[in-house]
């Protein structure tokens, strides 16, 4: 009796002939795959199964709040506060932190709905472009934070580490010619830690975060003790005493908000741990929103203490908290204590961010748009070891060569773009069910609302102050409210979240869209050049590789080829 033949798998990369044939078929494949979506059931079963073993569910909401605090309260606040206060907002940098915190909280609500239900919405290409930008932002920001560890450690031990511990290579271009071996070592050590165990990483994060928070409270107490409320309204240079608490006006406050938003990057890493949380519907909303709220309060208190210690026009733009005490008689020890605290903050920030970036890449790999090898979850450690190791080496390589100033210019815009896309995706997912509802009204609303937000931002940035500007801005606000209310009344929600959803739809995600567009409008030209370059690179990768790998996976059927994993019989593996 003849044996039934095994189905032959299709691969666009098996031979050069097959690949060129696939390239000729690219238009049809793009039309088929670029707008394809994965249902919640598929995401929870078939797609997740490509990781092999499950990640261990060992985390609760205190762990998530700890990860959120550890991820956000890092080097960002120590660097961005002085620059935002001195150049843009003055003492009103406190208000800048409130605005940035509100934007982060709105985005956190949107992230939470996705993390609880684990969907993939908005189409494969949009998801790939969003994920690619977010992973690259994590890599660049982690590399920047790792290099800043060298500088802050030097402050803590009283050694000029940036001069003595970095090696200058004359043959390399400026900005890439200072070799930082300490940054390399820190990234690789943390990579080993997160490969070993998420729960043990949580314990380490809790310890480091607890120590770091003690230093944060020390900074706040010292500021309110030694500072003066007079510095809120009186600069060091009397000639600048023309604006009081708002020396640069309201526009300066919003520019400052876009700058200090860097300090909030990291809360979204909490949502990437949904598969490792025991009760996602309860723990993730508490963990994400709770950590953002606590951090916002701490940042406002830190900014207030900084503004009380030093007049805004005398702040150091690179290390304001340490510099505030380094020149004071008898208070130099405080500067060293702050250096120690910042060093702990950098370690916790790196730990959480590198946990998050590996899980982002793991989920992206499940969709076959990058090699599925990166989605592998190790059955022994229940962690995405391959993704963690790959991004660890990649981040360490960038941290080894690239100057801090180069890296900081590459960070914010991609993150704001991702938060903008997530807010749009939440609305789309709530109001559109593929095949049963008409997507045109929802798409029309999203386009109209984004357009109004862009017009508002352009008027704010380029129109001269006066009655005309106020009328135009007011008109944009009224138009946005009318469009939102009309959409709310005329278009019913197509689905209700099974576990937890963003409240007050569509108002909260719409507010997130508007704030993210506004903060995007505050960034400089260089940021948009960087965003355009990496987005173009991501599109090229998608067209040349991802769409074909995804097409092959779909053509080969809806089953998982478990033979690609060594541990197919492991008890933790998913059955399909």
Summarize the helix and strand pattern as letters: HHHHHHHHEEHHHHHHHHHHHHHH
Largest sheet: 2 strands, antiparallel
Helix content: 55-70%
Describe the strand arrangement of the main beta sheet, using strand numbers: 1-2
Mean pLDDT: 78
Shape: globular
Residue stretches low in confidence (pLDDT < 50, at least 5 long) are: 1-7, 118-122, 558-576
Number of strands: 2
> Structural class given helices, strands, pairing?
mainly alpha
Number of helices: 22
Distance between the termini: 29 Å
Rg, Å, rounded = 25 Å
- Estimate the strand proportion: under 5%
What can you see in these coordinates?
By secondary structure, the protein is mostly helical. It is 66% helix and 1% strand. It has helices at 16-24, 26-33, 40-47, 61-72, 75-89, 93-117, 124-157, 161-164, 181-196, 198-226, 249-260, 268-271, 280-309, 320-326, 332-366, 385-401, 404-408, 412-431, 440-462, 467-490, 507-520, 525-555, and strands spanning 167-168, 178-179. It has a two-stranded antiparallel ribbon. Helix 4 (61-72) crosses helix 15 and helix 7 runs antiparallel to helix 18 (412-431). The longest helix has 35 residues, at 332-366. The chain crosses the membrane at residues 64-81, 88-109, 175-195, 202-225, 245-265, 286-310, 330-351, 406-428, 440-459, 471-491, 503-521, 528-545. Belongs to the amino acid-polyamine-organocation (APC) superfamily. Cationic amino acid transporter (CAT) (TC 2.A.3.3) family. Keywords: Membrane, Transmembrane, Transmembrane helix. Pfam families: AA_permease_2 (PF13520), AA_permease_C (PF13906).
